[in-house]
Structure prediction request, 442 residues.
Amino acid sequence: MTATTTLLSKQGQGAPAGRPNVVIILVDDLGYGDLACMGAEDIRSPHIDALAARGMRFDQFYANCPVCSPTRASLLSGCFPDKVGVPGVIRTHRDNSWGRLSPEATLLPAVLGTAGYHTAIVGKWHLGLTEPDMPNDRGFDFFHGFLGDMMEDYRHHRRHNINYMRRNRETIDPEGHATEVFTQWAIDYVHERSAEKEPFFLYLAYNAPHDPIQPPAEYVRRVKEREHGITDTRAEIVAFVEHLDDNIGKFLDGLRDAGVAENTLVVFVSDNGGSLRFGANNGGLNGGKEDMFEGGIRVPACVAWPGHIPGGVVSNTPLMTMDLFPTICEACGVTTPGGLDAQSFLPELLGGKADPSDRIFIWVRREGGRYGGRAYYAIRQGDWKLLQNDPFSPLELYNLREDPLEEHPLGTANKHHLKLFTRLREHINEAGEIPWQRPADA
Prediction:
């Protein structure tokens, strides 16, 4: 009997009383090296570090894309993003919007909801701005957050001078720093649900530390006093991450205060790599946000679940954001839908072993502007990775074991170049069946 089977037999298939609550904390543009537990020497992140120490940390966890919307689509669908219609960023204006979440995609909140979970998203949605593409249309019972891509001011909460803040379908206009607002809303939610018998799924999606970099002034002052010689740019992002960490700590305290922490599985992960132009630290990896190099797609991640996941364990198994979908279903004793690209890693969380050597990982990003609406890709199998870092660059092959910083591309004569190129072509052909643009009259 496997560890997974043992867990589910203890819970009882279809028995809600034995199922955990689930919280996914998704942060925005946090660099691979921008936590103390990931090696940062100038950042203090005690709350996220403690969460990682209580569970399993992943050192080869990959976002499904080097930018926002596609990763979010994969997290909620368990599929590669272009296979659910989101190869690029969804934006306000159709001529610069590069995806529409497929109406045919089955999302995680809908699956959990059918199995008796109350489902909620607090924070950033970024997968549609109008009906029928809003959270309440796609399986969430409750939405309290921001529909759009980015806020132009963390205290004003606008994009293109449009107010995208909602409570379900009602437009609202809250006061305060968005990070703090979302934290309080999430605390309010778990306290409300703690009085109910049904378990909950909360997707807490922060905008931070995405630009504009706007930490409270006292955080910047504290960082500059502590870190002598730090640049203004670096001080700002360090302060922003520390402000985010403090708020995550307040939320985790809220779980404990509500009496639900011991029966809650908590995931922490970033949606893509950190932005180099805003001073992010991607742990010495090549590249950053928007890049198919490791710095753009490898992200900090951890999972904690009291009494189930041993603490202080570090995994080096390659995983992707989309893998959270079947993992959570399996942990909750919920039947995982068919047709997913993702794979559950619950057995590893519970002490088993994984063999990812034959698994195929694929990344895509379509973008306008200087990219001209073109897409570019990366693909990995085992230690071999083939990537195109923008639509106009050549495909380059790397062996990540021998060249982890991706500094020495190998020639096209290498047999792995053709093997991965062929597999990527097959994926592009298959994903091409899925529309990615919203109809002009919709």
In short: The first helix runs from residue 3 to 11. The radius of gyration is 21 Å.
